[in-house]
Structure formats: C-alpha cells, structure tokens
C-alpha cells in the first residue's frame, strides 16, 4: 500500500512504527509538523514551514492542512494514517484522503484532568470532527476504545492492539533477590502535572523517614522538576535520588536494567510504553490505580497499585517490596507470559498491518 502517515517524526515510537511498515513492503511517507529525526529522513516530509513542537498555532495547523491536501493529490495514497487525533487526526480529516485511519495516543481521547474548560471544549470539537471522517481507529488499550464508543464511534471499526516493545532491544534479565542492598526504584515520566511526580517524591521522603534503604533514579524532563527536587531536599531524601534527565531511546533498556522496581504516578494514560518496556526488561511495576494499568497487570501478582496521588500508599507498597524481595522475583517471572503474548512489537505491528490491509481492501471492493 501507499501510506501517508501523519504524525510526529521526532517521536521514536512513531518513527519505528513508520519504518517497520516500510519494512513490511508498504510505501510510507511520514509527514510531520514536528522535527524529522535522522532515522526517518528518507521517509519524512515537512507539514510546516518551520518544524518544531507540532500544532503550536492556528497558522501552523492551516499550513499543515494545505500541505497534507497537496500530498494526497500528488501521491494518491491508498491509506491516510494519523497518530494523535487532536492534531494530526484533524489534519488527516481535512486532507481529503480516504480511507483515513486514526490512532489514539490516549490523552487525545481521554479527559486530561489538568486541562482548562476552554482547552477541553476545543479538544472535544476537534475530536468530533476527526472521528466523523474516520474509517477506522487503532487503540492501544480497551479503556481508550470504550471512550471512543462513548463518543459515538462504531465499535466494529476499532482495533485494540498495543504496539508493544522491541524485545531484541529490551532484553529480559532475571531479577535479583538481593536484600543486602537498597531497593532500586526507577521512573521515566515527564515532569508535568499530569504525571504527578510529587507523589513519588513524597513517598521517597516517607521511605527515608521510615529508615527503608533505597536508591532512586527519576529520568525525564519538564517544568515540575525543580518542585520535585525541592520536596526531596526539604524531606531529607535528596542524597538517595538521581535525575538522569532525558534518556536517549537507545539507552533506555540499560537505564531500566539498573532497577528492581518501576514506578508510575500518572493520573491518566492510554497505554504506557514505559510500563511495557519496564515489564520487558524485568522490573516489578508499582503504579497508580488507573484503567491503563489494570488492562495489563494483575494486582498483587504482576504489579502493585496505589490510589492516584496517595504518597503514603505508594511508600507502603515500596517498603513492603524492600522487606520481601521475593515478591519482586515472583512477580517479574509471572509477567513474562504477558510480555511474550501481548507486548511483542514485531508480532503486534504485523497484526496492525494486516488489519490496515483488510480495511483498505474492503473499501476498494466497496467502491467497485
């Protein structure tokens, strides 16, 4: 197929997806309002005069629509595929290309509790327009599909399929039952209000107060970092915490392999790639109790849950694991089946490609 893929070409998750579709024999053009990474320079086409952080203004968005319409006219794609419905999905919907398949990241469909009323209203309007012209939707998790059905999209036109993890890169290693050293805790979420990193910082302060030995690395970047560091300093726990910053994609497996436990404090998620990567490497997840995490983890067996924002509950869960490392070992081994059966990127991308091929073939038959 000739695929016009509209999405952020600066995102490693998008570029590997576009590249793999090409490897499967499809002719892929990746059109982006974001900077185009070297990995897909041969596939990449700019959707804006100045590439940066995406649809940052109405002017950028209108320019992207014009360029997308020109690409549809020039390349006559068999399929227009768009990732992130509240930006690229809108561009695809207005591009004139059909069939159009959207892929929901999660935040573009679910309610963001930190968005103001105006932003929510705009997002709802954009999403409604994009879904009205959409022939099919890809979702990484069941709760996102349920939300689309609530919004009026036909369940029969939805494929629920996580992209998964490159298991050649994220190699599983057996967890250590090592009670003689501090518990190693790892996080790799953005320092933004949505991800509630203050919950983890407060939990680490509580661990220090209880005398629980630990070491933590909080990778990532964002505007909340100074506040998180201040919580740790004021709570006397800063000496046990490192901030590696933005970890390059190629270094993430090694960064994760250092730890025993992966923590996510997010208030909402679609399907967290970081969670999948942590499971693949062999970390035990301690995560907020939200649908995105319950879709993939068995409470008490392959992961532990705590209420969103409840630092005391998170500290209690971590303290329990520090006292009984066998729970980590057993949980990581129990999760191996999930990783192999549901989170193998190679197998999952083939299923997605087959579904796309069937959708295009069905539309072509219907037009004859």
Quick structural summary:
The protein is α/β, with parallel strands linked by helices and 368 residues long.
Protein described:
The chain has two domains: 2-164 and 344-367, Rossmann fold; 183-342, 3-Layer(aba) Sandwich (Rossmann fold). It is built from 14 helices and 13 strands. The protein has helices at 12-23, 58-75, 85-93, 117-132, 142-150, 197-210, 225-234, 252-257, 273-281, 291-294, 311-323, 326-334, 336-342, 345-367; strands spanning 2-6, 27-32, 44-46, 79-83, 100-104, 136-139, 158-160, 183-188, 214-219, 241-245, 261-264, 284-288, 304-306. It is globular, with a radius of gyration of 21 Å. The mean pLDDT is 93.
What's the rounded overall pLDDT mean? 93
Strand content: 15-25%
Widest β-sheet, arrangement of strands: 3-2-1-4-5-6-7
Assign the CATH architecture of the largest domain: 3-Layer(aba) Sandwich
Per DSSP E runs of 2 or more residues, the count of β-strands stands at 13
Query: Helices and strands, in N-to-C order?
Result: EHEEHEHEHEHEEHEHEHEHEHEHHHH
Spans of at least 5 consecutive residues with low confidence:
none
Which percent range fits the helix content?
40-55%
Count of runs of 4 or more consecutive helical residues: 14
Q: What does the radius of gyration come to?
A: 21 Å
Q: In one word, what is the shape?
A: globular
CATH class call of the largest domain? Alpha Beta
CATH H-level homologous superfamily name of the largest domain: Glycogen Phosphorylase B
By secondary-structure content and strand pairing, the structural class works out as: alpha/beta
| Terminal residue distance | 18 Å
CATH fold annotation of the largest domain: Rossmann fold
Largest sheet: 7 strands, parallel
How many structural domains does the protein architecture include? 2
